[in-house]
């Protein structure tokens, strides 16, 4: 069974090729069902591999399936090979599982789109790339998937490419990600030079012997890559814009799977990160892990403050995703790799649910995304509203929903790392509960504000009344809602025996995982209580502001505009950045080529002058020859004399 | 290690067939114009078939020259008709063999087919000769022959400023060649590598038997390097390229980018570094720096171009910078990557020029600002463009990645900080190509572009081989690497023998 691991990416590949060849003939909805089947098949194979791994003793849960030698040159051996171990299979399970649900949802959501089959072509290509990313046995195969998901993200964000905003957003995502890729590539080079290998097993074995500075270079550059893919400061810019893509894309790529790749990479590299602990920047006080934790915490807080003031239903969720990814990096930086993966999984459940719910609302509202024009939709879209509320409770951190458990575990480790990080995490949790409650109230409760919006189109009458989505879209919502309720039970904090995920991932991260100080572990129920109080406080505050209208909403422009960071970067790129580029182009045309043309002109002018010497006058020539002879003679004579 | 001369003189045929084809085209075309294209196509297809046969018969894992053919030519000066192919030149020969039939089949000169095709075939003979000549004099002859047809192709079938561009190309290269001619003669005369210390122009003899004082070697190396740097072109000697590329007809641009520039990088490796390893190592910092500047400079200049062809031309400056980086880093991976990148750039950029040519045929403009929304009216055309573009960007899984990655990872071992800067080129490559793509293919289509025709079958047939190579090489480069690497190893061993240079290995390698 383990040898069949290659089949996991092969099925979406088959789907991609089939749709490439026959997509237009298959059409709507058969192309969609084909793609869904392939993704579901990958899930079934993954489940088989998972069960097989479970049945093995923990230390044998590491199986490499080598397909062929990809780039072998000298001491460099890069194989196209897959690794089935607890981490990769955990990733595969939720990538294919949630992926299948989103494929199914998209069958309904994309119905009637002019480029229906192309959408599923990209979706299967994405699934293939994502699976290569997580299954890769070495950094280069991961990079293959890494760039593949980047390209698919580009295709899918600019899927409605007639819209300038969509085209620009796609390009922005690709280019920003490439900045991160630069870091990933350089990290690979450092790793290869220091260890002679790029395979994860080899790196893990070599890591303890690395010089701390080298380990720090590898981990640090890899983190640059992770920041790009997982939308952390300062490279998060592309993710809010990526909402230009169709909503299933936002759910699949920009919430549940692709954006977690950075967290996955750092977890894979945990032995190196661990080895880098003894190298400090800024006078030896700040390790790479601390940088990771701080960037994560600051990003989490930053994005949460921005989410508070967004009015676009998807933008709220986009900033929320950035913020939740920040939590995961806070966990990685605190040495809590299990907690990071735990939150990645629960977040995949509830964030996919929320995005698909938002998509269902957008679908029902006939492509309206502004929450100010919604309200009271629970009456017309009961299933969407019910499942969305589950997702809301999960992300807000209300027990026993999934998000509570994973966020709580991260905060525990954050406290152990530094109380400051813990407080930032806690404030973020408060804001998360607040902005999500705000969203739920604006969309599903209060008075219906869509009457006004659509009264203008009165002629269409009831055709524009919001409606519940078809079963094919609602079904996945129900399934994800179920997962968002029970998802937290894979890792419960009460005793060692219910920490299932920790046991499962132990073979991968055991050596690098931070151990909580005893007194922190004893206080876990106190922390849990604080987390519940904070979540409830956030919910109540938002309720008072948006439902009861007791307090005026605080939505300053600076938050609505994301602290003007995006604006500043755009201004720089469009201003001094562009001028510098134009300067280079100008210098190329005028200085370098100018020198060339100048020397051409000099030669021509010189030749023109020389031409005047050829007078055709015999006496001038004779005089010149005579002068030459005299000069030569004089030279020889003088040389002989001296 | 040289193989015995093979019975069938395939390398001589690779030069002779296109040369005879050129002659036939010129002669036949005068009497029977309807056979012109057929004659030319058959000659180039035959050459292509020979090159593929050569690839099939080539012994992988053998780093020496194969299919060697050596006949004395001018005995007194030690000049001989010496041809041979190894892993460094093999795929350049195949690329030449494959590109020419595609260009002949796929591009339309619009007037005077006979002369156009005859010049193309003569060009092919010259290029082939340059890649397989193992005698400095012979190499120089082929290297110079190439200039003449290329000049006439640009000047005769090019665009608005074709004469200016053609002259610039010719003069630039001639200046470089003048240095090389002096260098070649001096090398042969001072080298005295022939039997009993006589003069020899033979590359193998010179590499093995000639030794120069350090200063002399450096002067000679620079004489060669200038000629090749112009041809590559290496920053800051690149300004002829955008003009030549933009003004050349599509076929000319494809050949120029695909194989002509490679005569520079190939020559640098084969004649420059190989003959003067000490000088090459001594001048390493200079060339690494110029290469890295070229990578960034070319990419930044490309971003700001308003003409699609000029944009692709500047991207060549950037891509060729990677090759020079790989050559001067002198490690197995970097040099193997450089040889790969030679081929990959030829395929990707060649295909890009074909595509831009098709856009020009339809819209009679290359200005990015006049194109818009083409993806909505010609999705298949846009799809092919996307694949080629991503290959040029260096997306893994496509061919461009393999060469670039090997160059960078190999160079990192000997030139770390140059590589860290050069790698930023991957960001810029995405920037200039995607931005151009967005302006040309995305957005709502306007009236001027609404009639943009979808890819035709004939065009698809020309592009299909490009796309197939792009994907195959990206996924399974091993057959190529297996043939390139042994020769690169031998090359590095030669540098070691001459200078005591030891290729650095990553730690862990060879550890007990």
How would you explain this protein's 3D organization?
The complex is a heterodimer of chains A (642) and B (512). Chain A is mainly alpha-helical and 642 residues long. In chain A, 72% of the residues lie in helices and 2% in strands. Chain A has 25 helices and two strands. Chain A has helices at residues 7-55, 86-109, 116-135, 139-157, 164-195, 200-206, 212-229, 238-241, 247-256, 261-268, 270-275, 288-307, 313-333, 337-364, 382-396, 402-417, 419-444, 450-455, 471-486, 500-509, 518-522, 524-547, 557-560, 565-613, 618-641, and strands spanning 63-69, 79-84. A two-stranded antiparallel sheet of chain A has the order 1-2. The longest helix of chain A is centred in the N-terminal third of the chain and has 49 residues, at 7-55. In chain A, 56% of the residues are buried. Residues 457-461 of chain A have low confidence and may be disordered. Chain B has 512 residues and is mainly alpha-helical. Chain B has a domain at 283-503. Chain B contains 23 helices and two strands. Chain B has helices at 10-31, 36-57, 87-106, 113-132, 136-145, 147-157, 162-191, 203-209, 214-231, 240-247, 250-275, 277-282, 284-303, 308-329, 332-363, 374-377, 379-393, 399-412, 416-422, 425-441, 447-450, 457-475, 478-499; strands at residues 66-74, 79-85. In chain B, strands 1-2 form a two-stranded antiparallel ribbon. In chain B, α13 (284-303) packs parallel to α19 (416-422) and α14 runs antiparallel to α20 (425-441). Chain B is globular, with a radius of gyration of 22 Å. Chains A and B meet through α4, α5 and α24 of A and α7, α13, α15, α18 and α19 of B.
């Amino acid at each position: 069974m383990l040898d069949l691991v290659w089949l996991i990416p092969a099925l979406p590949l088959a789907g991609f090729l089939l749709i490439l060849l026959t997509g237009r003939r298959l059409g709507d909805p058969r192309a969609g069902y084909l793609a869904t089947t392939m993704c579901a098949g990958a899930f079934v194979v993954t489940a088989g591999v998972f069960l097989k791994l479970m049945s093995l003793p923990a230390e044998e849960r590491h199986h490499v399936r080598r397909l062929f030698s990809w780039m072998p040159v000298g001491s460099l051996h890069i194989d196209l090979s897959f690794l089935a171990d607890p981490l990769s299979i955990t990733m595969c399970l939720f990538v294919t599982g949630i992926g299948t649900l989103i494929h199914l949802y998209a069958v309904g959501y994309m119905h009637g789109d002019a480029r229906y089959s192309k959408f599923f072509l990209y979706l299967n290509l994405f699934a293939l790339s994502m699976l290569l990313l997580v299954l890769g046995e070495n950094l280069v195969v991961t990079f293959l998937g890494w760039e593949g998901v980047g390209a698919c993200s580009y295709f899918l964000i600019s899927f409605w490419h007639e819209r300038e905003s969509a085209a620009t957003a796609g390009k922005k995502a690709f280019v920003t990600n490439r900045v991160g890729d630069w870091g990933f590539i350089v990290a690979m080079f450092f790793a290869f030079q220091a260890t002679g290998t790029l395979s994860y097993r080899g790196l893990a074995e070599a890591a303890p012997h690395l010089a701390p500075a080298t380990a720090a270079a590898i981990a640090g550059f890899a983190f640059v890559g992770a920041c790009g893919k997982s939308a952390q400061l300062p490279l998060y810019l592309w993710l809010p814009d990526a909402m230009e893509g169709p909503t299933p894309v936002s759910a699949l790529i920009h919430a549940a799977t692709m954006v977690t790749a950075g967290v996955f990479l750092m977890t894979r590299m945990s032995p190196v990160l661990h080895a880098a602990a003894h190298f400090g920047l800024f006078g030896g006080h700040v390790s790479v892990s601390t940088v990771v934790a701080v960037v994560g915490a600051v990003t989490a807080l930053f994005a949460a403050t921005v989410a508070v003031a967004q009015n676009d239903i998807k933008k709220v969720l986009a900033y929320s995703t950035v913020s939740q990814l920040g939590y995961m990096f806070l966990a990685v930086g605190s040495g809590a790799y299990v907690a990071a993966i735990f939150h990645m999984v629960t977040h995949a459940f509830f964030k996919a649910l929320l995005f698909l719910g938002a998509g269902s609302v957008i679908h029902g509202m006939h492509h309206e995304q502004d929450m100010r024009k919604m309200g009271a939709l629970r009456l017309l879209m009961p299933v969407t509203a019910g499942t969305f509320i589950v997702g809301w409770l999960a992300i807000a951190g209300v027990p026993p929903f999934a998000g509570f458990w994973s966020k709580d575990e991260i905060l525990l480790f954050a406290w152990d790392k530094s109380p400051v990080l813990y407080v930032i995490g806690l404030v973020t949790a408060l804001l998360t509960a607040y902005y999500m409650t705000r969203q739920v109230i604006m969309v599903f409760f209060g008075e219906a504000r869509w009457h006004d919006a659509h009264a203008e189109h009165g002629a269409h009458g009831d055709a524009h009344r919001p409606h519940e989505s078809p079963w094919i879209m609602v079904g996945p919502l129900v399934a994800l809602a179920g997962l968002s309720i029970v998802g937290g039970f894979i890792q419960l904090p009460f005793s060692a025996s219910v920490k299932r995920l920790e046991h499962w991932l132990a073979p991968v991260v055991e050596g690098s995982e931070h151990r909580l100080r005893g007194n922190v572990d004893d206080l876990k129920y106190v922390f849990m209580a604080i987390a519940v109080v904070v979540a409830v406080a956030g919910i109540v505050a938002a309720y008072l502001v948006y439902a009861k209208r007791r307090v005026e909403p605080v939505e300053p422009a600076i938050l609505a505009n994301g602290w003007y960071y995006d604006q500043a970067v755009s201004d720089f790129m469009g201003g001094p950045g562009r001028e510098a580029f134009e300067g280079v182009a100008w210098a190329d045309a005028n200085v370098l080529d100018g020198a060339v043309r100048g020397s051409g002109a000099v030669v021509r002018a010189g030749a023109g002058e020389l031409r005047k010497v050829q007078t055709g006058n015999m006496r001038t020539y004779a005089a010149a020859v005579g002068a030459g002879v005299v000069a030569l003679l004089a030279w020889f004579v003088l040389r002989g004399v001296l | 290690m040289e193989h015995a001369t093979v019975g069938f003189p395939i390398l001589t045929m690779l030069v002779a067939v296109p040369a005879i084809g050129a002659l036939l085209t010129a002669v036949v075309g005068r009497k029977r114009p309807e056979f012109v294209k057929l004659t030319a196509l058959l000659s180039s297809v035959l050459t292509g078939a020979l090159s593929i046969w050569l690839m099939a018969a080539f012994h992988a894992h053998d780093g020496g020259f194969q299919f060697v053919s050596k006949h004395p030519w001018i005995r007194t000066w030690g000049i001989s008709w010496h041809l041979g192919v190894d892993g460094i030149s093999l795929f350049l020969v195949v690329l030449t063999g494959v590109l020419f039939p595609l260009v002949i089949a796929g591009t339309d000169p619009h007037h005077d087919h006979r002369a156009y095709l005859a010049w193309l075939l003569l060009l092919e003979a010259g290029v082939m000769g340059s890649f397989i000549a193992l005698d400095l004099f012979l190499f120089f002859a082929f290297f110079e022959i190439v200039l003449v047809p290329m000049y006439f192709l640009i000047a005769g079938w090019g665009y608005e400023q074709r004469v200016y561009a053609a002259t610039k190309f010719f003069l630039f290269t001639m200046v470089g060649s003048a240095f090389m001619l002096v260098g070649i003669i001096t090398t042969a005369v001072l080298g005295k590598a022939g039997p009993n210390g006589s003069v020899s122009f033979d590359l193998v003899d010179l590499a093995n038997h000639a030794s120069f004082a350090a200063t002399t070697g450096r002067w000679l190396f620079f004489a060669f390097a200038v000629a090749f740097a112009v041809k590559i072109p290496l920053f800051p000697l690149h300004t002829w390229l955008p003009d030549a590329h933009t003004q050349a007809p599509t076929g000319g641009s494809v050949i120029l980018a695909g194989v002509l520039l490679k005569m520079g990088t190939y020559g640098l490796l084969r004649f420059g570094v190989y003959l003067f390893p000490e000088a090459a190592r001594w001048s390493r910092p200079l060339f690494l720096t110029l290469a890295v500047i070229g990578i960034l400079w070319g990419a930044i200049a490309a971003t700001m171009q308003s003409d699609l062809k000029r944009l692709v031309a500047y991207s060549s400056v950037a891509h060729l910078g990677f090759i020079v980086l790989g050559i001067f880093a002198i490690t197995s991976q970097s040099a193997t990557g450089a040889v790969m990148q030679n081929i990959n750039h030829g395929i990707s950029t060649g295909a890009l020029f074909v595509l831009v040519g098709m856009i020009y045929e339809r819209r009679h403009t290359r200005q990015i600002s006049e194109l818009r929304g083409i993806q909505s009216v010609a999705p298949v055309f846009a799809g092919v463009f996307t694949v080629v573009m991503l290959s040029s960007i260096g997306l893994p899984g496509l061919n461009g990645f393999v060469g670039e990655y090997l160059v960078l990872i190999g160079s990192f071992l000997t030139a770390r900080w140059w590589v860290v800067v050069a790698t930023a080129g991957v960001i810029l490559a995405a920037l200039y190509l995607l931005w151009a793509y967005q302006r040309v293919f995305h957005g709502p289509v306007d009236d001027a572009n609404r009639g943009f025709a979808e890819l035709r079958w004939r065009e698809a047939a020309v592009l299909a081989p490009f796309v197939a190579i792009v994907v195959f090489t990206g996924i399974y480069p091993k057959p190529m690497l297996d043939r390139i690497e042994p020769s690169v190893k031998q090359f590095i061993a030669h540098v070691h023998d001459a200078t005591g240079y030891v290729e650095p290995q990553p730690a862990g390698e060879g550890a007990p």
